[in-house]
Amino acid sequence: MNIVCLDMEGVLVPEIWIAFSEASGIPELRRTTRDEPDYNKLMNFRLGILKEHKLGLKEIQATIAKIEPLEGAKEFLDELRSFTQVLILSDTFEQFAMPLMKKLGYPTIFCNSLEVAPDGEITGFKMRCEKSKLTTVKALQSIGYETIASGDSFNDLGMIQASKAGFLFKSTEKIKADYPDIPAFEEFGDLLDAIKRSL
Predict the structure, then answer these.
(1) Which is the most buried residue in 37, 48, 154, 181, by most CB within 10 A?
(2) Active site residue: 7, 15, 91, 156, which one?
(3) Number of domains the chain is built from
(4) Is 78 a catalytic residue?
(5) Helical H runs in the chain?
(6) Catalytic residue at 9?
(7) Sign of CA dihedral 14, 17, 18, 21
């Protein structure tokens, strides 16, 4: 029994925070898990900037509404789901992910949730579990699945390395150079072929 675990942002859709950085004109919000391995530190940094600029969930959701999946992402997912189980493991939040899941044909996603005040201010965030991607992959393995994983950032490395096969996809030059043993791909067709060979 195989299950493919995919990261979302940078792999299937553009990075939400980069899109919001551009829309809001706040360059500091361009920082992602490609730049900062410590997710809690990164999110607290983001929440501080949002508070400083009096921006909340409504403004971010307005940007997300305009984001389209990466070219070929939906077709890749549809093809992948035609022959194996697929689970998207993301450190994003339900309030961000749902409009994007609609555009991708509603694949299954495990992600986190935001704490939002009545006025729309994002006051905090609730992670599903510690090291959510790695923890989920290990849990899947404990109930009889063999996992194949792919992602682009520091927070994907744990699930990639713990799986029977793992791939970097559209990653940074630094991550690819630091982890030369992990096959790296730029095109959905190449990733699809690598996954098929691993099944």
Answers:
(1) 154
(2) 7
(3) 1
(4) no
(5) 16-24, 39-52, 57-64, 73-81, 94-103, 132-142, 157-162, 173-178, 188-198
(6) yes
(7) positive
Give the domain CATH number at 105: 3.40.50.1000
What is the average pLDDT value for the chain, to the nearest integer?
A: 97
CB 199 within 8 A of CB 2: yes
In this predicted model, what pLDDT tens digit does every residue of 81-123 receive, in sequence order? 999 999 999 999 999 999 999 999 999 999 999 999 999 999 9
CA dihedral 115, 134, 19, 121 (to 10 degrees): 10
Tokens of 55: 């921006």
Host H or E run for residue 112: strand 109-116
Catalytic residue among 9, 15, 152, 156: 9
User: Could you tell me the sign of the dihedral formed by the alpha carbons of 33, 28, 74, 59, in that order?
Assistant: positive
The β-bridge partners of 167 are 150
